[in-house]
């Protein structure tokens, strides 16, 4: 019987069934408890394989069955999905606010002909099913003691008020709205309000500079901007409206004017009287929104109508406006949420990501709410007023599912176990990670110390472009290996290819691509369909190219090795920076590490490692040698760093991603070519690094 190669590489899973004793050499397996597996949505590797196989062999049937659980004003046509990668014939026009914005060569459609609304499916559908009084959002403020909540009915009321306001201000189906808000409930409320009327939201993370914001305004020309006057994160106040004002001025000089700026008053951070104001353009949220009716008819949209635009940075050039459409994204985020987090209606779910990133779109707002989940939204900094805040919040709300990023795990690990162990955390049942490979030592700390060695960790690999999880554990379904994202989600066919684009089989490592389509895939880059094709579909003909490197081990587990643009080639050995970093941070005295390639006379490239030590540990020559030995031991002599550069801190974006571009410049002593450092969470760390560059 024909099984496509997508299913082939997971067939070994048959051998790794739960409860079976694992061979002695497989000590790195972490097996979910029988109790967990018994209650899980997917209880065994067999059950997964059966569903996976169907999802690959019959994607139309598989996804149609799931899509039928949602409300469609009109069901999709006969062709559930349609993709045209190779032929490059179909010319399809997509319209944004009546303006044709691109022509499709690479065409991708899911549920075409279907008519629905994602906001309706998040709210009205759940309320009609009896969830009206269930808490949709628990909100925890930056200051302990400040909190709030909304039931699904209350949430719908507020969404409708904002939707009515937007309509009243001329926002129509297809118009763009920029949202520049911190993690207030008003952020998901506004996203859902836009979706309700068919407007396209573009959330800009409220940590971006005025310059970045204006760049986005100029690109998508929003009808309205929604912000707040200020916010407190930790002990620091950030004056968001000043940033918005500067961005609006800058855009006006570039010919894009903004007529309406809706400002939520956040009195904890800044008083109304102290807020700079432009009459006629600026309007207080609290002055207008409550006056609008709490019902608002739904704008029914096509499955392929754009839902949102989210800008993400490429390795070069200006940010890319990733476009997601409605139907496929809806079905995909809901399904991935349900299975990867083993969702149960009694769960209290907390994702620490900001709605300014894709994670906050798919897994704070849409995925959870499509499942009728109770979502915790936290406004503040995870270590404010102390390093135990996250666990205080977990205990306060009895959080069951905690989804965060490796960078936070490592920083909490560095703060010491006492902050964790003094809390209960008994409510936790699933932990999860996203954003970068999670190194095995952080994985183990998360698993053992935070989760009492009983909560599976879903290490979810995916991208802004993919809309939802692509490679992820399904907790309870199979044993985990610390640091591996494990296996593909339903419908996803990851392939690992070599430089020439040839598919590699079995144990291998190379470029990670995806064969065929999945419903959550992005459809284009806003206004630049050519860049979409060049970046993602040209490098390896016939595949979507992820830009990541990946290794598949003898058991078929996937190990993401970092962006391929960060791969270092040392004497012909391809070494993922993430692998070296993982080895370094496994040393008990190393808190964090970032590795870049530098030119090397003999080897082509050398390995240059920036290392942050655990608090209180002094730098020493002995430790330097010890770290190098650790890497030699774990990967091999060829991977030993040529240079260890002590780093009190690493240059990170506000979302916690290390900016290697800057590190590469520091490593090669090009201090006057550091480029733009304004998007760093703390620009000062760069000066510290330069000072220590000869240490
Ligand atoms: C969701 C998100 C995407 C890039 C991606 C990869 C890295 C994300 C990961 C991971 C290893 C994981 N990445 N999750 N690497 N394991 N679990 O982060 O989207 O901001 O677009 O970043 O992040 O390199 O290509 P985005």
TrEMBL record:
In terms of Gene3D superfamilies, this protein maps to: 3.30.300.30, N-terminal domain of ligase-like
Domain AMP-dependent synthetase/ligase: residue ranges? 132-517
Which Pfam families does the protein's record reference? ACAS_N (PF16177), AMP-binding (PF00501), AMP-binding_C (PF13193)
Name of this protein: Acetyl-coenzyme A synthetase
Q: What is its EC number?
A: 6.2.1.1
The protein's matches in InterPro entries, at most eight in alphabetical order, are given as: Ac_CoA_lig, ACAS_N, AMP-bd_C, AMP-bd_C_sf, AMP-binding_CS, AMP-dep_synth/lig_dom, ANL_N_sf
- UniProt keyword list: ATP-binding, Ligase, Nucleotide-binding
User: For the AMP-binding enzyme C-terminal domain, which residue ranges apply?
Assistant: 579-657
Domain Acetyl-coenzyme A synthetase N-terminal positions: 48-122
GO biological process terms held by the UniProt record: acetyl-CoA biosynthetic process from acetate
What reaction gets catalysed by this protein?
Answer: acetate + ATP + CoA = acetyl-CoA + AMP + diphosphate
An annotated Gene Ontology molecular function: AMP binding
Family of the protein in this entry = Belongs to the ATP-dependent AMP-binding enzyme family.
Query: If you read the UniProt record, what top EC class would you report for this enzyme, in one word?
Result: ligase
Keyword Nucleotide-binding appears in the UniProt entry = yes
> From what superkingdom does this record's organism come?
Eukaryota
Native source species: Lupinus angustifolius (Narrow-leaved blue lupine)
